[in-house]
Amino acid sequence: MYLQATTSFAWSVIGETPIVRADAGRKQTHFYGAVNLSTGKEIVLRSDIMCSEISAQFLTAILETTPNVPVVVFWDRAPWHRGEEVAKIVKDNPRLETIFFPPASPDLNPQEHVWKAARKAVSHNHTMTTLPALASKFEEFLSKTSFPSSFLDRYGYSAVRPLFI
Q: What is the total count of domains within the chain?
C-alpha cells in the first residue's frame, strides 16, 4: 500500500479541470491476509517487508487464531511464501498444510476479492495525508468486515465435508 490514492472517479465544476492531489513519496507498507473460508473472518498482519520470516510469523498467527483444528492455507506463488522459516513452521505443525495456487491464477484466490473490497472501501479516492493513518484504516476495515466466499462450495467441499467432521 502506498499513500497515493487510486482515483476511480472525480467530480468537478463543468468547464474546470479537476485537481487530483498526488503524493510523490514512495513510502509503503504491506499486508498479509487470510480469509477463513468457513466464517468470512479475515486474519491480517501489517509488515514493512515481505519475506519468509514474516510469512512464518503470519502462519503462526493463523495457527493461534484457529487452535485445535486442521488448517489448510492456499497461497499464491510469491517468493516470500517459501523459505527455511516457512518450511520449519509447516514441519513443526502437522495440522498445517500449505497448497499453492497454479501460476498466474489470482481469479482462484478468495483473498484477492478481500483486497479488492478493502481498496474500494478505503484506499480509492481517499483524503488521508499520512501512510500510517491510511494503513490503520485499511487494517481496521479488514479486521471488522466479514468476507463470505463461495470457494468451498465451488470446489466441492460441501460434498465431502461429512468426511471431515
A: 1
Tell me the pLDDT tens digit for each residue of 43-62: 999 999 999 999 999 999 99
Is there a domain that residue 5 lies in?
Answer: no
Q: Sorting pLDDT into bands at 50, 70 and 90, what band is 163? A: very low
Check: pTM over 0.90? Answer yes or no. no
Domain assignment of residue 1, yes or no: no
In a domain, residue 90? The reply is: yes
Q: Considering the domain boundaries, does residue 58 fall inside one?
A: yes
The full 3-state SS of the chain, as one line of letters, equals CECCCECCCCCCCCCCCCCCCCCCCCCECEEEEEECCCCCCEEEEEECCCCHHHHHHHHHHHHHHCCCCCEEEEECCCHHHCCHHHHHHHHHCCCEEEEECCCCCHHHCHHHHHHHHHHHHHHECCCCCCHHHHHHHHHHHHHHCCCCCCHHHHCCHHHHHHHCC
Domain extent at residue 89: 30-146
The yes-or-no verdict on residue 162 having pLDDT over 60 is: no
Cell 470457494 appears where?
Answer: 151
CA-to-CA distance for 29 and 19, rounded, in angstroms?
26
